[in-house]
Structures are given as C-alpha cells and as structure tokens.
Amino acid sequence: MKRVRLIAPHGRGVTEVLAALDVSLASGLFDQEAEQRLTVYGANAIGSRQKAGLLSVLFHQFRSLVVGLLAVAAAVAFYFREWEEGGAIVGVLILNTAIGFVTEIKAVRSIEAIRALGSRSARVLRGGKARLVPAERLVPGDIVLLDAGDVISADLRVVEAADLDADESTLTGESMRVGKSTTPVDTAARVADRTSMLFKGTSVTSGTGAGVVVATGMDTELGQISRLVAEAETEASPLEKKLALLSGQLVWLTLALTGLIAGIGLLQGKDAFLMVEAAIALAVAAIPEGLPIVATLALARGMWRMAHKKALVERLSAVETLGATTVILTDKTGTLTENRMTVRRIWLPSGELSVEDGSFTPADPSAAVQPDTTAELESLLRIAVLCNNSTLAHVSADDSGDPMELALLRAGRLAGLDRRKLLSETEEVREYAFDTVRKMMATVHRRDDGYLVAVKGAPEAVLTRATLDDNTRNAWLARVTDLGANGLRVLAFARQTRSRSDGSAFEALTFLGLVGLEDPPRTDVPPAISACHAAGIRVVMITGDHAVTARSIARLVGLGGDAPRVIEGHELTSHDGKVSEEFLQADIFARVSPTEKLDLVRTYQASGEIVAVTGDGVNDAPALRQADIGVAMGLRGTDVAREAAAMILLDDAFPTIVEAIRNGRIIFGNIRRFATYLLSCNLAEVLIVGIAMISGLPLPLLPLQILFLNLVTDVFPAFALAMGEGDKDILKRPPRRPTEPILGRSQWLAIALYGITLTIATFGALALARFGLKLEEQATVTVTFLTLAFSQLWHVFNMRHQRSALINNEVSRNRWMWAALALCAGILLTAAYVPSLAYMLHMVAPELKMWGIIFSMSTLPLFFGPLIRRVVRRYEPDSDRTSAKT
Questions:
Q1: Angle ∠(537,593,110) on CA atoms, nearest 5
Q2: C-alpha distances out from residue 61 to 57, 741, 815, 841, Å
Q3: pLDDT tens by residue, 558-613
Q4: Is it the case that residue 676 has pLDDT exceeding 70?
Q5: How many angstroms separate the CA atoms of 306 and 296, rounded?
Q6: Helix 83-104 vs helix 272-286: angle between axes, to the nearest 10 degrees?
C-alpha cells in the first residue's frame, strides 16, 4: 500500500477522514492490514539524538587555542629534555581539563524526554474487538478508544465524543482544558483551536470518545516539535565566543613575539639552544595559563551561588550569558502569573462586586452592599459550588479538578459555603456533563420541595436559555464583553426548580449572574520587570493564550505600559516565511506556535540581541534550545523543557531570573578584571625576557620561574578577584553591547601601562642588585624573580572598579583576596628558603639587603596605579566615565 498523509484532517468531516484512511468505525483495522501499514509508516516513535559520550566531552576540553599552544610548548620542552618545564605545563593542562570535564559534562536528553511522552499503550479497535496495543505499533487508520485519564499516543481525528475534554497545556501553552467534538473546524485553525483533534503527548481530562489515528511518529505535532528541537542548534555562548577570540589573539601575539625575538637572537649569532629556551620562556610568559582555570572556577562559583538562589545552571557559560542578556522572552502562565484561577468579578442583577483581599466589595467604591445583593451573591455561589466536580483539600497543593471549578469553590468557601455540607443537604441525583455543542453543564439536586437544577456555562449559551427579555439579555451580553475586555474568563450561572428529577435541564432558566475569573499575576513580578527595565533589558511576553488575556496581565505587571502592543501568531510571518523585524518592537506575542516562537528567537538573535527564553512546555523546547540562555520552570516544567534549557528555576519565579542576571553581570566584570590582571602580569614577563634577549643580557627569568609565577602569584589572586561580590548598582546600568569584547580599548591600554610599570620595577630591581649590590648572577635572578612576584601581588589592588574608593573598595573588602595574598607570600618565602625548591627554581636564599630592594621596587606599580587609572578613564565608555570617582 502507498503512504497516505491527510492534509488538514481537522477541517474534514468524520466520514471523509475514515474513507481517506480506508477504515471502518465499527471494526477498525484487521491485524494483517495493521502490520502492513506498520511496515509502510514505521514505528510510532519520536527519533532521538545520540547522547554525548564521555570521550566527546573530554575532547571538547582541548578545543581551546591556548590549550593547544601549551601542549606544543610542553612537547618542545620535553624534546629538549627540559623535564621540569614540560611537566609543569602538562600539570596545568590536566588541572584545567579535569575541572572542565567534571563540571560541564551533560548529556543531550531533550528528544529522549519527548520520546518518553509517547511511550505508552493504547486501547484500539482491531477486527471489531478492543485490545491493548503498544503505542509504538499504532498506525494511521487505527481506531483508538478514549476515556478520562488516557494519554494520547498519536495524533487523532475525533470520531466520537461524549463530554470529551483534553489538557493540551504542554503542547500549546493554553492553561485551560479544551473541549473536543467531532465537528470540523476551519482548515486554517491553529493547533490550539483544533477542537476536532487530539494530539500525541496530551491527555484526556474528562469524558469518553474515539479517534482515528491520522499521524504517527515524526508526522505528529509532537514529532514536528522534536524536529525543531533537533534543528535548533545550541551555539557557543557570548562568553565562549569572547574567550575564544581572546585566546586566538593571545596565540597569534605569542607566536609573533616568539618568532620575532628568536629571529633577532639568531641574527645576532646567539646559540640556537639558548634561543629555543628563550622562545619557550616567551611562550610561557605570554600565555596566561591560569586564565582557563580561573575562568572555569569563576563560572563554577557562579553556579554554586545560583543554586542557593533556587536556580540550577547546567552549562557553565550560561551563568555569564544572563548578564549579557538584552531581551527576555517570557511565557505567561506560572511565570508571570500564579497559575491558579481566581474569581475577580461577580456581576449580579443588583450590581457588580469585586473579590479582593478575601472579601466581596462593590466594584464602585462609593456604593454599599445592599441586602438584596447579599442574597443574590449567596444564591449564585450556591449554584457555583453545587454545579462542580472539583475538590478542595486542606492544603492547596492537594486540590484536584478543573482550575476554574476550584476557583469557584474557593469563592464559595469565602462566603461560608462548603460543598460537602451543601451536598448533604441537597443530594445530587443526576449530572449533565459539559458538552462542547451545548456549552453548559448542570447538576440536579433533591430538596424537600422538589428538585433544584444548578447550571453553569458559556454566557451566550446560558443567556439564550434564560427567561429574559431581549433588552435585558443584550445588557448582560454587553457586560460579558466588558469583563472579557479586561482579560477575564467569564462564566454564567442559572437555576431551575421543578417537581421531578427528569426533564430538560436547560430550559426556562432563572439567570443569576456572571463570574469573571483570571490567573492573577504574581506579586513579585512587577518589581522584577521594573528592575529589568532599569537594567536596560526588554521583557517580551510570548504565550499561547488569547491576546485579550495576555494584554490584561501585561498591564498588571507593568509590561508595555498602558497600551502594550500585541501581535498574534498568524501575523508574524512575512511573504518569505520569516518573522519580520518590524514586529520585534511588540510587547506581547499571543497565540504563537512552537515554530513561530523559534523563528522569533532567531530573528532577535539575527538583529544582534542576546536572548533569554523562559518556558515550561513541550512547545517551548525548540526556543529554549535555540536561545542564548534557555530558562525552564522546575516545578511545573515538562522533562522536555528542562532538558532543552541551560538553567532551571526551582521556584518558577521570574525574580530569580533577575537575580541570575545580576550574578551574570558580576561574573563578567570579575572575568574582565582578572583577565586584565593576568595579562598585565604576563606582558611584564614578556617584556622582561624580550628586552633581555634583544639587549644581550642573560635571561632575568627562567621558563620554570615564569610558569611558577603564572600558577602561584597569578592564579590565586585572580581567583580571589573572581570571587568578588560586585557593585550594588550593577542592575542600574544598561547591559553591555553584545559585540563588546572581554577586553576593550580601555582594558588593553590598562594592560599595556601596568605591564610597562611592572617591567620598569623589575629592571630597576635587577639594576640595583647587579650594579648596586654587585650580586652574582643567581642572586640577581632571585631578586628579579621575587620583585616581579611581589609586585604582581600588590598589583591586585589596582584592579578595583573605576567607581571605587581608594581604600575601602571591593578588592580590599574581599576576604578571599587577603587569604590569597597571605598564601602566595607564604609560598614565595617557602620557595626562597627551602633548599630543594630553591634549587629547582635556580634561586638562593635572599639576604636582608636583597629584601630591601625587593620590597621597595615591588611597591612601585601600586603607587603608579592612580595615575594610570586617570589615563585609562579617558577611554572608558561615557556612562562609566561620568559616574567614576576620582
């Protein structure tokens, strides 16, 4: 048989769909035919990616150019039998690789999680008999029998429905259950509006029915989303790109300097082995071996901090990426709202009431609650509690049932009406379940004087069956429109009394009033969005919900002002199928499909934005993976969303994102600070070795000494800088430009000036030791080495922020810094006075007069620091320069 794929089955009649699939509703497929179709269509499974293996994660740690150059330097050192230098470099490589491997290993599980949603069994009709079939063996044409609680295992066209409702929130983002029927819908209807369809991965919440399989595996809507996840490649983070750029610059600079100085030496007729040794010294001096280690540890520290703030970061670079974020694309339900329906307005014949702070008050504050209003309110809430299938527990987390019905029960409890007590007084004898055609439900209750029928449903349906004149009915319909315009979901309530339990429950109804419900915004969201705006970050809502509801929530949380601009999903694409950039100024995107959400992320990124995306459902997974930083909800998020994201919020709170942004900015500032520190120290080492080679002087620093400096006096203070707590006003500044490098013009100028100052101090010490004290060569090297080492330690105090005070600043307040300085000083003293270490580093034990030179010259860069800061400040961005302190 040929493979058949139905086009828009949701818009075709049941008979037409069954005929196209060549199946009988009475008997379903026969086993032999099902097996043939299984061969043609394949298993009903979602394809999966291969998990990242341990070796691939390990090899990933060696992709840095700096790591490659260090490996070459180690190989050259071993070739020339410089065992100490080679071994030390290998030790650096092993340490950095171990940190990166242990911290960053993460398997790619997004599509495996999607696959798990469909790995169940289904009850199907085969040869006229119902039987249980593994979901993987479903084929187009199978008739699936449905009942409440079933998880849908393939895309189905509904062919029978009795009060059938489904929960599609993970697929569409719509939080309310969706009524299903056999009636075709418009062929252009979006997924959330296809009421004649049931989709793989969703679930039946109530009712019974049957559906014919129209798509399996990757042809389902869930399969299409999994394909989008696979296509949404996770790019290198902004920090990774910047570190790679910086590493590349350092590698080429190192090679150029090494080649130039070695060439000059060879032209001068110097010994080739000496030139190789000097080249190794230059390479070791130019490359900040501590940079990858400290950067990795700084990001790991950020991960630990965020874990304490209820945010789990699964990818190291994601910690810093949030600090660079310029746009947050956030979903609505549960992130901006409480994900809990609440009664907000009640419109009675005698007037309108607001439900605020646990009480019913007139919507007009100047009015008073009249006695007839109280009676009407009690009558309406009594019907709302009786016509209900949900249950309130003692703890809200244990509540069960439809969110709107739970909200009605809470409103009834507020008025002193308990469902159990009411049912004991008026026993329920019959129920008419909600029907998508009738759009109403009713319960019949026995009373002493007869029977009470409690009715609730869509306002248009209830008002049509109520005993009202046309003018009154139109007035109520206008009130429905008014409530809906404020983003409220509206239900109507009515009652009927009769002497018998049977008969029509939906005729001659006594209309009682309207109830407006909403998912209220979280109280902590407006300040968080305000903080984002102060930090120069745009917040944009992307939701599967309706535009009116989204606009109402946006106003309440302060998103988009009084008139937020709303774009619906169907408006997004231009003639070439891509999202038009003109839409990127919108505040809200409503009724958006997974494909459109993914295209939105890509369009924002193409326009130069750093994009953060929040989400919780299957429909959010592609965008979460594509984003520069995907943020999934930990409490209500699906496995798919959590696996696709780089960060998981354990409390589902939007303010946690703001805290993460603050930490990200702090981390970037710390990385910039310790990179400036490391490179200025390394530049001084390069200048010292290079000037000595060109001028014909003996090497004042040996390769192993330089490596010792880079791993002791560089790494520990640099890591202490990485532990800084940051500026308290860091969220009051706009985000840095996405194209801004780790080291800008002002940082490179600072590196050059500080490096020159350190070099001058070191050569000053060399001159005083050699010509002033007439020391021998090994003692001179000792003075030179220790002067440079201690000057680098004191140099850390030059790394305070431009805004900081001279004495009381973020560096001097950093307890880690004082510990690092004490540790490094102790190590240097040990190296100088322990014979075995001194021998390996080619040092002698310093005498008192040598210490005089060391300490006097090592403090020189610290005193020149304020002058250099004044010069550098002229090249700072205007925003930093105007607020900097002198």
A1: 80
A2: 7, 22, 31, 30
A3: 998 888 999 998 888 665 666 777 789 999 999 888 888 899 999 999 998 999 99
A4: yes
A5: 15
A6: 30
Mean pLDDT of 247-258: 70
Report helix angle 290-308 to 715-722, nearest 10. Answer: 30
Helices (H) and strands (E) in the chain, counts: 32, 23
When pLDDT is cut at 50, 70 and 90, the band that residue 316 belongs to is low
* pLDDT of the residue at 148: 81
Give yes or no for a contact between 645 and 620, defined as CB atoms under 8 angstroms apart.
no
Q: State whether residue 749 is helix, strand or coil.
A: helix
pLDDT (0 to 100) of residue 773: 92
DSSP designation for 735: P
Q: How far apart are CA 513 and CA 343, in angstroms?
A: 13
Q: Which residues contact 822 (CB under 8 A, 6 or more apart)?
A: none
- The two structure tokens encoding residue 372: 């007839």
Higher pLDDT, 620 or 411: 411
Q: Is 219 an active-site residue?
A: no
Provide the pairing of β-strand 342-348 with 359-362: unpaired
Which of 142, 331, 402, 639 is catalytic? The answer is 331
Listed in sequence order, the residues at least 6 apart from 718 whose beta carbon sits closer than 8 Å to its beta carbon are 290, 294, 674, 677, 678
Give the pLDDT confidence of 722-734 residue by residue, as tens digits: 888 877 778 888 8
Please enumerate in sequence order all residues whose Cβ is within 8 A of that of 829, keeping only pairs 6 or more positions apart, or say none: none
Considering the entire predicted model, what is its pTM? 0.71
Per residue in 6-17, is it b (16+ CB within 10 Å) or e — as a string?
A: beebbbbebeeb
Task: Evaluate whether 683 touches 755 at the Cβ level (below 8 Å).
Answer: yes
Residue from 403, 333, 220, 340 nearest 641 by CA:
333
Strands 178-180 and 311-313: unpaired
Grouping H, G, I as helix, E, B as strand and the rest as coil, residue 808 is: coil
Residue 176 CA to residue 194 CA, distance in Å, equals 14
Amino acid present at 11: G
Tell me the C-alpha distance between 430 and 445, whole Å. Answer: 7
Sheet with 440-447, edge to edge strand ranges: 359-362, 351-356, 342-348, 510-518, 489-498, 450-457, 440-447, 428-432
Instruction: Identify each DSSP E strand in 713-834 by its residue range.
Output: none
Terminal alpha carbon distance of the chain: 83
DSSP 397: G
Residue 330: strand pairing partners: 541
In what helix (H) or strand (E) does residue 198 lie, and over which residues does it extend? Answer: strand 197-198
Collapsed DSSP state (helix, strand, coil) of residue 148: coil
Please tell me whether residue 731 adopts helix, strand or coil conformation.
helix
CA distances from 496 to 181, 424, 452, 501, 536 (A): 27, 20, 6, 11, 57
